Amino acid sequence: MSVGVVGCGGRMGQALVREVLDNPRTVLSGGTERSDSPLIGKPLRHPATGEETILKITDDAEHLFKVSDVVIDFTCPTATNLHASFAARHKTAHVIGTTGLSEEDEAAIYQAAGTVPVVYASNFSFGVNLLFYLTRLAAGILDEDFDIEILEMHHRHKVDAPSGTALSLGKAAAAGRGVNLAEVSERARDGITGERGRGSIGFAVLRGGNVPGEHVVSFNADDERIELTHKAGDRAIFARGAVKAAIWALERGEGLYDMFDVLGLPKE
User: What digits encode the pLDDT tens for the residues 112-137?
Assistant: First the structure.
């Protein structure tokens, strides 16, 4: 199958290009970057070996959707919103790992999913999706005597906080307890905050270095603590999951899917 990568010059884009080139079931159909990128017009290369392909990096995302069976998109909300319209117009499957999307951006994704298969997830790692499941399970078993705190750390270049994965973990914990995350979330603590609210779900954010991603869900009661942890060593784990999702999506009809669907994990 032919797979395109939008935002192919970034750290995640390069990991995706490598995985698509190395996977025996996929052929790289092209890659795009912003129109002001110095990479425009340069050959697409294998990130590890440096071997050139016959493809050139362009800024024409719509053409990439037109010539691809599926396009993988780890860009930014504004770009992903536009890409969703291209996916619908050209009947191209769309795999989306972009985080920080607004309700308006997500509306464009939902609309495209009425026409083509769309896999939209905050994290494409198998391990992280298992963490989502275990978090929901634990939160459903442990009552409000256990305070829930979610800690995440990423590299210094990440622009949104908390991470999409951390927010998904919060949603999983809230679902386990049968509550709405928006009503119990504590995302900012500074100065005299007062006591921690019973039943709240707290978030803490760290940024620094080149950390691909670390997440800890901590359940804290008097005299005991349970922690569920995932540490990513390389962006390759997300790229592998995204390509797996791309292959899976082409065997499905139109609709909105996530990595629980791809991996066969129970949603309830």
Answer: 999 999 999 989 999 999 999 999 99
Please tell me the CATH code under which domain 126-232 is placed.
Answer: 3.30.360.10
Beta-carbon neighbour count of residue 207 at 10 Å?
Answer: 15
CATH class of 2-120+235-263: alpha beta
Q: What is the pLDDT of residues 61-72, one digit of tens each?
A: 999 999 999 999
CA dist 153 and 209 (Å) reads 10
Helix ranges, the chain (H): 11-22, 61-67, 77-90, 103-112, 126-141, 164-177, 181-184, 236-249, 259-263
Q: Which two structure tokens, joined as six digits, stand for 234?
A: 């390389």
Side-chain-facing half-sphere of 62: CA atoms under 13 Å: 4
Q: 268 pLDDT exceeds 80? A: no
Name residue, tokens 């990595």.
Answer: 259
Total Cβ atoms within 10 A of residue 113: 20
Q: Where in the chain is the domain with CATH 3.30.360.10?
A: 126-232
- Which segments of the chain belong to CATH 3.40.50.720? 2-120+235-263
Residues 6+ apart with CB under 8 A from 216: 150, 151, 152, 227, 228, 229
Q: How far, in Å, CA of 35 to CA of 207, rounded?
A: 29
Question: pTM score, two decimals?
Answer: 0.85
Active site residues: 154, 158
What are residue 160's phi and psi, to 5 degrees? -115, 150
| Beta-carbon contacts of residue 67 (< 8 Å; ≥ 6 apart) | 2, 4, 29, 30
pLDDT at 100: 85
